[in-house]
Automatic annotation (TrEMBL):
Organism lineage: Bacteria, Pseudomonadati, Pseudomonadota, Alphaproteobacteria, Rhodospirillales
Organism name: Stella humosa
Gene Ontology molecular function: peptidase activity
GO annotation terms (biological process): proteolysis
Protein name: Transglutaminase-like putative cysteine protease
Keywords noted in UniProt: Hydrolase, Protease
Length: 287
């Protein structure tokens, strides 16, 4: 078990006072058998009214409402947690899903719903054609196929941090041959969905004490990866950026069908078009 402290600070600057609309915050780590949350605080400067709820997939969502115009906004999130994931997990996959192709039980297929359907336009089916290239035979070992697919993403797509907002469409990532961790996660999810798997995007933090993982700045950073659902085993984490399986060094905060639903901070303001002066994000994950 590893005791960790996550600090995540987001700062916004404006050239003149602006009225902020309600902001949606996804900053509280998700508890699970492998992650126990000891404490979690979110502080805003200037002060705002915070209300908490859970969304349709169980993410903890805070909504911040602001009373007066502001020239700056600082959102400080601090979480203390216990991480108890093993480096090389063994997955108890149900017999029905040990080999691919397989059919999800009716109840699970219905519940997976849109998470088992590609979310990005691809009229030529390029992502599906690319993904089927990793199916060596039918039937084939399911977990081996998913490992090959995840490693294939990192083999075909070079990692490169990207400052601009948003996420590349999977076809764009294939065309460019490079992308950020969120681009690689989206490509893997769409490739898995094209093969009939249920998949979702995860946004959170990467704990990297040795500073040898891609996508890490210092001992930790924000990160994105993919979870794929297998009967019996449940949701299995695949980090295509670092070619890892399981949640050994991953701290999930939000899961979503589409990565746009998992942004840590989302909001708008009323003011002139040039009022926004900039944003900075600082993250540390320390033992």
């Amino acid at each position: 078990m590893t005791l960790l402290t996550v600090r995540h600070r987001t700062s916004f600057r404006y050239r003149q006072p602006v009225q902020l609309a309600p902001h949606r915050l996804l900053l509280r780590p998700r508890e699970s058998r492998e992650l126990r949350l000891r404490s979690s605080t979110v502080t805003l400067t200037p002060a705002a009214t915070l209300t908490w709820t859970q969304d349709v997939v169980g993410n903890a969502v805070a909504t911040a409402r602001f009373a007066a115009p502001v020239e700056h906004l600082v959102i400080d999130a601090v979480a203390e947690l216990e991480l108890d994931a093993v480096a090389w997990p063994v997955f108890d996959i149900a017999a029905v899903a040990l080999t691919y192709p397989f059919a999800y039980p009716d109840d699970e297929r219905i519940d997976l719903g849109a998470m088992a359907v590609p979310q990005y336009p691809d009229p030529a089916g390029r992502v599906g054609t690319w993904a089927r290239g990793f199916v060596r035979a039918e039937p084939t070992d399911t977990l081996a196929l998913l490992r090959d697919l995840a490693e294939g993403v990192s083999a075909w797509i070079g990692y490169q941090s990207r400052d601009e907002e948003g996420t590349q469409w999977p076809t764009r990532t294939l065309d460019r041959g490079w992308g950020s961790c969120r681009d690689l996660a989206v490509l893997l999810a769409e490739a898995a969905r094209s093969l009939g798997f249920g998949a979702r995007i995860v946004s959170g933090y990467l704990y990297d004490p040795l500073q040898d993982q891609k996508g890490s700045a210092g001992a930790g950073s924000t990160h994105a990866w993919t979870e794929i659902y297998l009967p019996g085993a449940g949701w299995i984490a695949f980090d295509p950026t670092n070619r890892r399986v399981g949640g050994f060094n991953l701290i999930p905060v939000a899961v979503a069908r589409d990565i746009r639903q998992a942004m840590p901070v989302a909001g708008s303001y009323a003011g002139t078009a040039d009022a926004f002066a900039g944003m900075t994000v600082e993250v540390s994950v320390t033992a």
